[in-house]
Amino acid sequence: MRFHIRKRRQPPAVIVVALIDVLIVLVIFLIVTTTFKQQPSLRLALPESTQAQKTGANEAAPLVVSVDKQGNLRVGPQATPVTVEQLRRELAAQSDKNPELKMAISADTEAPFGQIVKVMDAAKETKIKTVNAFTKEAGK
Q: Distance of CA 122 to CAs 5, 87, 95, Å?
């Protein structure tokens, strides 16, 4: 009778270094693919509109002019504070660079209407053809 000698198996081992490498690759992938939402530098309560639409991603970004509750004007992505006269000069400079420039007014619901009219007048003086207003969808 021949007895078969069984080899002792070693218990499976978890290779921690390989798991850490895989986790680091996953974290890097998630960080790179995450889209970051830009937060506005001003807190504005936008007026509601039943016709509010989201702008397309393929459109050129408009020049944003913000008007807060106190009537202060800010222009551009950095929200640079400006006066009405400085705004006129800035709009003229931007319009000279890009004749198809679009402007968007982002005004608080409690912003003085006179300031909004001054911004619209400045846009008209500098021959900006498209002026929109930021709103939010009604009920949201």
A: 95, 7, 12
Statement: the pTM of the whole predicted model exceeds 0.70: no
Report pLDDT digits (tens) over 76-134.
888 889 999 999 999 899 888 888 888 888 888 888 889 989 998 998 888 888 888 87
* Residue labelled with tokens 């002026």: 131
What are the φ/ψ torsions at residue 40 (nearest 5 degrees)?
Answer: -70, 145
CA nearest neighbour of 76 among 116, 112, 103: 103
Across 4-19, b (16+ Cβ under 10 Å) vs e yields: eeeeeeeeeeeeeeee
Strand partners, 49: 137
Phi and psi at 28, nearest 5°, equal -60, -40
Taking the C-alpha atoms of residue 70 and residue 44, their distance in angstroms, rounded to an integer, is: 11
Pick 48-137's CATH classification: 3.20.20.70, 3.90.1150.10, 1.10.10.10, 3.30.420.270.
Answer: 3.30.420.270
